[in-house]
Amino acid sequence: MNVVSARSLDLTFRTGDGPVHALKDIELDIAPGEFVSFIGPSGCGKTTFLRCVAGLEAPTGGTLTVNGMTPDEARRARAYGYVFQAAGLYPWRTIGGNIRLPLEIMGFPEAEKKRRVAETLALVDLDGFEKKFPWQLSGGMQQRASIARALAFDADLLLMDEPFGALDEIVRDRLNEELLALWARTGKTMLFVTHSIPEAVYLSTKIVVMSPRPGRISDVIDSPLPKERPLDIRDSAEFIAIAHRVREGLRAGMEAA
To answer: Is there a single domain that holds both residue 143 and residue 205?
Structure first.
């Protein structure tokens, strides 16, 4: 069973200035364990599609399932973790306290909360930072803590909305490497929104190229790159060819808009 399946998916927002067609005729299947990046110009519906998967927006046409459930059912079942562009850590809580928050809401026993916090901190290489406060960590470390919080209740699906967009290129490269390693260790399905062509190509097993509003899929690229990817793979002919196809898809989408 696909983790995410969209058929003829539409979403139109009703505004005082008239309808805004955010998504149109989205057809997409995402299999378990895939790393899928969504790339396109601002306003093309990348984040809107992620919010539909999360049950935070309601499509106005077509169908969308998450693990065979409606997005609303999947949200109530805590079937996904969500990582936003800003880390969104509560400044009055320690790093451990931030990661523990969803576990407290879900009513996990104390021993289980302690175990999961320790495990997820180790997964994102933040051992020893449990008692630190967010302001004591760098931006990259805060984002890793945000990822740990999303991983804490062990959902099989991780939704990531430009989590590294505000970070400098050196930190971003390191976190890209760490995220790939995390994906390899956990086997989770990743949906990742980005504006960066190199980031999309480096991370993904599948790249979904979207066109301007109304947001449509202009290309779906299955990556032939190996699962283990050192950063210098970006200099390879295969990487450059995929990046060229993404760029062409973006250009074609802009011209068709």
So the answer is: no
* CATH classification of the domain holding 198: 3.40.50.300
Question: Could you give the number of structural domains in the chain?
Answer: 2
Is residue 150 a contact partner of residue 83, using CB atoms and an 8 Å limit? yes
Q: Are residues 186 and 171 in the same domain?
A: yes
Q: How far apart are CA 243 and CA 229, in angstroms?
A: 15
What is the average pLDDT score of the chain? 90
pLDDT in tens, 38-86: 999 888 889 999 999 999 999 999 999 999 999 999 988 888 988 888 7
- For residue 9, list its beta bridge partners: 26
Stronger pLDDT, 166 or 193, i.e. the higher one:
193
Amino acid 126 reads L
| 35 membership: H or E segment, kind and range | strand 35-39
Q: Token pair for residue 70? A: 């409606």
Q: Which domain holds residue 228?
A: 4-79+156-256
pLDDT tier, 167 (very low <50, low <70, confident <90, very high otherwise): confident
Of the CA atoms within 13 Å of residue 234, those in its CB half-sphere come to: 14
Q: What kind and span of H or E run contains 126?
A: none
Helix axes 139-151, 95-105, angle to 10 degrees: 20
Separation of alpha carbons 75 and 72, rounded Å: 5
Task: Tell me the pLDDT tens digit for each residue of 172-183.
Answer: 888 898 889 889
Within this chain, do residues 171 and 142 fall inside the same structural domain, yes or no? no
Domain match, 142 and 27 both: no
Among 134, 154, 174, which residue terminates a domain? Answer: 154
